[in-house]
Amino acid sequence: MVKAGIIVGLLAAVLLPPAARGETKPRKVKLELKLPKAQFVGTPKNLKTPNLEAPRKTHKREPFYVPAGVKNVALGKKVTGSDMEPIIGELKMLADADKEGEEGSYVELGPGKQHVQIDLGATYGLYAIVVWHFHNQARVYRDIIVQCSNDPRFSKNVRTVFNNDHDNSAGMGVGKQKEYIETNQGRLIDPKGVTGRYLRLYSNGSTAGDMNHYVEIEVYGLPASAEQPGKRPSRLAFISSTKEEYRFDTGVLRGTLRRGGKSRGLSSVTHIPSGTRLDGSLGILSHYRVFTANKRYGHAAWDWPSTSKLMPDGAVQVDWPKAKDRPFEMAAVYRWSGPATLDVTTTVKAQKDLPGFESFLASYFSKGLPASSVYVEGGAKAEGKGFLQTTEKSAGIWQMFPRDKKVVPLIQDGRWKLPPNPVAWAIRDNLAAPLGIRRGKPKGLAAILMAPAEDCFALSTPYQGEGHFSLYLSLFGRDVKAGQTATARSRLVIAKSPTEQQILALYKEYVKGLTGALQPGR
Q1: DSSP assignments along 219-267, one per residue
Q2: Which residues pair with 490 in a beta bridge?
Q3: What tens digit of pLDDT does each residue of 104-154 get?
């Protein structure tokens, strides 16, 4: 009877459904993809390639199922590659949600074997990768290889999830997959849940020529921590505390984002090792004034109705919908990239033409950070190199440092005369880079605010010691046409006793990791 009981128990363990055995599996759902419009139909007969897959019986892809909750974790993420100066387009376009493939929507890389790489910002379990190379005409791209790793150099722990190089012409091993004709469907690759932070995609020209092209890459995944119940979540993540309010504790910084559900950036920010309170009355990295040419939209974006959501990677997205008096949508994503480093990506989608659009990103610090300085173009003092210029009261109460003289007319088009609280800016030296610092004692903490030069056209501050203790980034500074979407990036770093050389090194590291960013001292 004992043996019989054992046998029955074993059979039950095998035959009963997982739920009945006390096991759970992720619920699967159909992956819904928004496809661009088709540019051609049928299978061309003049494409000669020895490894081409058989024609599909239907142009519709079979349903593909993924765990519930997966998101496109590549959207808006950093894209780099072997050709950092594409012949056409910018690498960031590979993750901007534009899949149409028309002129202005694709990137052309140089000839021969090339690769692009996406930093997902955190480790994810990957369940679907969809890539569009170029679908305006029928062509076959050669040696398509897709790899995943947690090493940005791809020197270890590299996993290949797709390879159709049938003759090892790329020198990375013979692949088992077939070549295929590009269509508006893209190519859906099943990575089978492999985990990683970095994704690298290779190609080696096409039947149309030696150049390489990309329109869009989508990567559908879940945070690795979400797949492993009981695993402690990363500290580099916001945690929802109340309705649309988020806490953070990175081990270095602790505080709140959107206190009370209002879009006033970071508040109650404490530097944990020193116990120093960093924020002022109106928060850090708050979206304040919004302008177009000689027009202001209300008092401040932080007063507009907004919604927010916690993203799978622990970032927070804030959305401001369009309104009768605001012909645009605006969004911001706050994402930790280090224990003392926060990135903010601001996006605007125009419903009508927005001439000279500006989002004025404000950061108000505590009185413990009274001294401000800005990285400006050098003169005799710096022998042609940039240097950190202090902001003495003798130079003006409110001081603005433009990217160059070309943007001064934009600053002075009347927008800053509009109430409430108009400002008469004293125009200072040109920026060597959008890089501003607030610091306390000479050997104390420093708050370092930065942005790539093409995304920020001015940096401003009151004189050092003035009671606002603030720094401001003037983002965008360009026309945004109706139907267009524009993006601006910025970063905050908190550092202890950094030297000028160390501050500049932090900025160089930042822009090096971005695509299309101008180097300091341009």
Answers
A1: EEEEEGGGGSTTSPPPSSS-EEEETTEEEEE-SSEEEEESGGG----EE
A2: 344
A3: 889 999 999 999 999 999 989 899 999 999 988 889 999 999 999 988 999
How far is 361 from 383, CA to CA, in rounded Å? 32
Q: Nearest-CA neighbor of 52 among 230, 192, 220, 178?
A: 178
Question: How would you class 403 by CB atoms within 10 Å of its CB: exposed for 0-12, middle for 13-18, buried for 19 or more?
Answer: buried
- Alpha-carbon distance of 437 to 457, in angstroms, equals 17
374/298 Cα distance (integer angstroms): 29
Distances in whole angstroms, Cα of residue 342 to Cα of each of 284, 335, 510: 11, 6, 12
Element containing residue 409 per DSSP (H, E): helix 408-411
Q: Is the peptide bond before 420 cis (omega within 30 degrees of 0)?
A: yes
Separation of alpha carbons 444 and 459, rounded Å: 23
Nearest one of 384, 506, 516 to 450, comparing CA atoms = 506
424 is written with which tokens? 């008469």
Give the integer Cα–Cα distance in Å for 510 and 388.
Answer: 18
- Count of residues making up the chain: 522
- The class of domain 239-512 in CATH terms is mainly beta
> Which residues are registered as beta bridge partners of 130?
188, 218
pLDDT in tens, 179-211: 999 999 999 999 988 889 999 999 999 998 999
Map out the domains of the chain as residue ranges: 25-227, 239-512
Identify which of 519, 500, 393, 511 has the alpha carbon closest to the alpha carbon of residue 446. Answer: 500
String of b and e for 484-508 (b: at least 16 CB within 10 Å)? eebbbbbbbbbbeebeeeebbebbe
| Structure tokens belonging to residue 225 | 């921590």
For residue 485, give Cα distances in angstroms to 307, 373, 478: 19, 32, 12
Percent of the chain with pLDDT over 90: 68
Convert the pLDDT of each residue in 475-502 to its tens digit: 999 999 999 999 999 999 999 989 999 9
Paired sense of beta strands 470-480 and 431-439, if any? unpaired
Q: Identify the CA nearest to 434 among candidates 417, 449, 418, 419.
A: 449
- Looking at domain 25-227, its CATH class is mainly beta
Place of tokens 């694709």: 106
Q: Which amino acid is at 108?
A: E
CB 284 within 8 A of CB 258: no
CA distance 309 to 297: 24
